[in-house]
Specification:
By secondary structure, this protein is an alpha/beta fold. It has two domains: 3-203, P-loop containing nucleotide triphosphate hydrolases (Rossmann fold, 3-Layer(aba) Sandwich), CATH 3.40.50; 247-370. It has 17 helices and five strands. The protein has helices at residues 10-21, 39-51, 65-71, 97-106, 112-118, 130-140, 162-173, 193-196, 209-220, 224-234, 238-246, 251-266, 270-281, 285-307, 317-326, 335-350, 355-370; strands at residues 28-32, 78-81, 150-155, 179-185, 200-203. Helix 9 (209-220) packs across helix 10 (224-234) and helix 16 (335-350) runs antiparallel to helix 17 (355-370).
Length: 376
């Protein structure tokens, strides 16, 4: 993975490259950034740059023996740990290493959902267990084969259970010589504080919208207008942008589904609500999350239409007609509650909530919120 292949994040790239040039490589670093920000890709590009045998001024060479092996994820001094769905046949990361290489090489901005979808384990619990910690200790007890450093990248480090995390504390505090831990995390709050305190924080923000637009035009051949609309909806999340590209053919379906929900919720037409819930419940979990993100987009654009410059509204032709009629129902007295409920629903959906129960609750909440009077 080369730094130039990562979208935006130039300040972080510069910081990482400078730390190598100045010999200030911390033995344990936490790459903390939201989904789709490129935190995993940055960790791997950093590891490759450290191990590169012919470093360039601002990137790995991409051609030396070390880079060739990194590009295939087969370097003997590079180790990965990631969540798995524990079973009789799968206990640690190496049990599914071939699939991991497949999914990462296809998309370095892989999400946990993408990963578990490939494993056919979408509805199982993602965990880095205590047996993984023992495997980490075993691997790092070995001497390096080719590179100066042994590098351990732990993706979704917040998925370590407490037993696994506790077992890693000592080695994080006193690692073997020339050993690097690169923890990649989306939610710092889910990590043990004792682990966070033993790492150097590399904070990664959402991708700048202009950088994301440029990537969508260059990498996916999108028109500037379509790229701008997609980037705006993705909100700095390249993984979400990819999902939106795949779902473009369903944009009309999202609008129709949103219209049905709002109309049924306004006067709470129980029959219409149940029909709508049955329709969306049979969609895949990723499609349901996509709908919730789409609903957030419509809420935000409706608010902008009411209170800000109309030129800032980014809607398709079909959406504009609907939002013009719908926007009066969205105002300062209820918009924060709408966004909060949609964000909570998305959060619960990611944690395998029952779709029918979740969307029924959402319909009840929307009935209440749509009927709140506009503040004077």
């Amino acid at each position: 993975m080369l730094f130039k292949e990562i979208i935006g994040q130039q300040a972080v790239k510069d910081r990482l490259i400078r730390s190598v040039k100045e010999g200030r490589i911390s033995h344990a670093q936490l790459f903390l950034g939201p989904q789709g920000s490129g935190n995993l890709a940055l960790a791997l590009a950093y590891a490759q740059y450290i191990s590169c045998g012919n470093k360039l001024e601002d990137d790995s060479c991409g051609q030396c023996l070390s880079c060739v092996k990194y590009n295939k994820l087969v370097h003997p001094d590079l180790h990965f740990v990631y969540p798995v769905a524990l079973s009789k046949d799968v206990r640690v990361s190496t049990d599914v290493a071939v699939k991991w290489r497949e999914v990462f090489l296809d998309n370095p901005y892989v999400t946990l959902f993408n990963w578990f979808e490939l494993l056919d384990a979408e509805n199982k619990q993602a965990v880095i267990g205590v047996e993984e910690s023992a495997e980490i200790l075993r691997k790092l007890s070995l001497t390096t084969y080719e590179a100066e450093y042994k590098i351990m990248i732990i993706w979704q480090a917040e998925k370590m259970n407490q037993a696994a995390a506790n077992k890693l504390l000592k080695i994080l505090e006193e690692p073997p010589e020339k050993t690097l831990f690169l923890l990649v995390c989306e939610s710092e709050d889910q990590l043990l504080r004792t682990i966070v305190s033993r790492t150097q924080l590399i904070k990664i923000t959402k991708i700048n919208e202009n950088d994301l637009i440029e990537a969508l035009v260059d990498r996916h051949g999108m028109s500037p207008g379509a790229a701008e609309s997609t980037a705006h909806l993705a909100d700095g999340n390249y993984a979400e942008a990819l999902s939106l590209i795949n779902e473009n053919e369903n944009a009309g379906q999202n609008l129709a589904s949103f219209q049905k929900l709002m109309r049924a919720s306004l006067k709470f037409d129980a029959k219409a609500v149940m029909v709508w819930i049955d329709e969306i419940a049979v969609a895949g979990r990723e499609r349901q999350k996509n709908f919730l993100n789409y609903a957030l987009h419509i809420m935000r654009e409706s608010l902008i239409l009411n209170y800000a410059d109309v030129s800032l509204v980014k809607l398709g032709a079909d959406e504009q007609g609907f939002v013009k009629k719908f926007s009066p129902f969205i105002h300062s007295g209820n918009v924060e509650h709408f966004i909060d409920e949609l964000n909570k629903a998305h959060h619960h959906m990611e944690r395998n909530a029952n779709a029918k129960i979740l969307f029924m609750d959402l319909a009840f909440k929307f009935n209440e919120l749509l009927n709140l009077p506009k503040p004077i």
